[in-house]
């Protein structure tokens, strides 16, 4: 028998590779620009805690030894901080990996997974890879339509994703609505609440989901060290869930999914709540600055509770992205995120925010004068 083509799995054939925020090095190479500001991937502009750096230096002596597969010291410390049991925690190579583990473990051909349209794209991609069918319910004014998502449940539904705050809009769902949603969703459907930007939220309308873990065995909460802890490069995040789910995920998980440096840095970061509080405060100040400036420019945006803002424009996001890039400012064009005439900008340091605003003003002036 002769084959002419290496066969790829059907589910993969029509997928496209993920397009991430443009890296600084790439823009430097392509445009020959010296000074570049990256406000594209919702990273922490203040880096990470000095305690994390110190602990990585020490841990470097151990790089010839595999890490502990379940990161027990880190899991134990997290459990104490969150006041939950250690066996309700699974560490992942970023919360990205926990998403992947969940779909790999629970989704098979034709299973339905409900999510918002638009939300974090990795939910859809992982569901497709595993043969499932994403059921996408449009946001209402940038906010999850929980009623619509509830009504979309069928006998094929296996999983529901709620991204809170939502990426890319930065919005949160109302406390009471999420509370009653958690109560209503049938217990055989996994309800995954992604709280990657949890630490940035200051609004009283935000629901604390942790207390529901004990009573709702289908609830999964995702968090990460990539955002406010500033450890995106190390790839470490976690999921909180019933032990019965974790027992299934660990059958699928790579044995050494989180590396030693990541475990050590995350462990040490938990000893520096001041760093986290300062980042949250500076982010809040930056958000207010950006919102004021954008409003003065006559622009509107979704009300953000995270470390980024999605700005509505009169021009295609792609065009504004390219014009900003020429000025050394990298943001995300909304066309890649499901909203044509928008851009998503990460809240940076005060200097970075000012540079973004000035550059955006230049782009708008340029288009007005042509
Ligand atoms: C909503 C959301 N969930 C999960 C992630 C993945 O984070 P990580 O894999 O770095 O923990 C991101 C990253 O941008 C995100 O925005």
Automatic annotation (TrEMBL):
CDD domains the record matches: AAT_like
Presence of the UniProt keyword Nucleus in the record: no
GO molecular function terms noted in the UniProt entry: histidinol-phosphate transaminase activity; pyridoxal phosphate binding
Alphabetical UniProt keywords: Amino-acid biosynthesis, Aminotransferase, Histidine biosynthesis, Pyridoxal phosphate, Transferase
Aminotransferase class I/classII large domain residues: 36-360
Pathway: Amino-acid biosynthesis; L-histidine biosynthesis; L-histidine from 5-phospho-alpha-D-ribose 1-diphosphate: step 7/9
One Gene Ontology term from the biological process aspect of the record: L-histidine biosynthetic process
InterPro entries: Aminotransferase_I/II_large (IPR004839), HisP_aminotrans (IPR005861), HistidinolP_aminotransfase (IPR050106), PyrdxlP-dep_Trfase (IPR015424), PyrdxlP-dep_Trfase_major (IPR015421), PyrdxlP-dep_Trfase_small (IPR015422)
Transferase keyword on record: yes
Top-level taxon of origin: Bacteria
Catalytic activity: L-histidinol phosphate + 2-oxoglutarate = 3-(imidazol-4-yl)-2-oxopropyl phosphate + L-glutamate
Enzyme class at the top of the EC tree: transferase
Residues the record lists as N6-(pyridoxal phosphate)lysine modifications: 227
Cofactor: pyridoxal 5'-phosphate
EC number: 2.6.1.9
Gene3D superfamilies assigned to the protein according to its UniProt record, in alphabetical order: Aspartate Aminotransferase, domain 1, Type I PLP-dependent aspartate aminotransferase-like (Major domain)
UniProt subunit comment: Homodimer.
Family according to the record: Belongs to the class-II pyridoxal-phosphate-dependent aminotransferase family. Histidinol-phosphate aminotransferase subfamily.
HAMAP family named among the record's database cross-references: HisC_aminotrans_2
Name recorded for this polypeptide: Histidinol-phosphate aminotransferase
């Amino acid at each position: 028998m002769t084959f002419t083509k290496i066969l790829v799995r059907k589910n993969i054939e029509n997928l496209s590779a993920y397009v991430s925020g443009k890296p600084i090095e790439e823009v430097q190479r392509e445009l020959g620009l010296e000074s570049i500001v990256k406000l594209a991937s919702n990273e922490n502009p203040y880096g990470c805690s000095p305690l994390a750096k110190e602990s990585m230096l020490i841990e470097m002596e151990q790089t010839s030894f595999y890490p502990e597969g379940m990161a027990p010291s880190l899991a134990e410390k997290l459990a104490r901080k969150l006041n939950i049991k250690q066996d309700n925690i699974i560490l992942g190579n970023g919360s990205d990996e926990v998403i992947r583990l969940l779909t790999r473990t629970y989704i098979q051909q034709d299973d339905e997974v409900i999510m918002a349209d638009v939300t974090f794209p990795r939910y859809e991609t992982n569901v497709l890879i595993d043969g499932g069918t994403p059921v996408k319910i449009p946001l209402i004014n940038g906010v999850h339509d929980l009623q619509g998502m509830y009504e979309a449940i069928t006998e094929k539904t296996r999983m529901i994703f709620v991204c809170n705050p939502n990426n890319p809009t930065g919005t949160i769902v109302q406390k009471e609505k999420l509370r009653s949603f958690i109560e209503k969703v049938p217990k055989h459907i996994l309800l995954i609440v992604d709280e990657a930007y949890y630490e940035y939220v200051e609004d009283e309308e935000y629901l604390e989901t942790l207390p529901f873990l004990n009573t709702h065995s289908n609830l999964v909460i995702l968090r990460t060290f990539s955002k406010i802890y500033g450890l995106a490069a190390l790839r470490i995040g976690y999921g909180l869930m019933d032990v019965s789910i974790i027992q299934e995920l660990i059958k699928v998980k790579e044995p050494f999914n989180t590396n030693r440096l990541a475990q050590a840095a995350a462990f040490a970061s938990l000893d520096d709540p001041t760093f986290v509080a300062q980042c949250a405060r500076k982010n809040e100040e930056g958000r207010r600055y950006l919102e004021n400036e954008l409003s003065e420019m006559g622009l509107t945006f979704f009300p953000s509770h995270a470390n980024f803002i999605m700005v509505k424009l009169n021009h295609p996001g792609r065009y504004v992205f390219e014009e900003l890039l020429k000025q050394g400012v990298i943001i995300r064009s909304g066309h890649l995120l499901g909203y044509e005439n928008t851009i998503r900008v990460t809240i940076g340091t005060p200097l970075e925010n000012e540079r973004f605003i000035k550059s955006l003003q230049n782009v708008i002036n340029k288009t007005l004068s042509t």
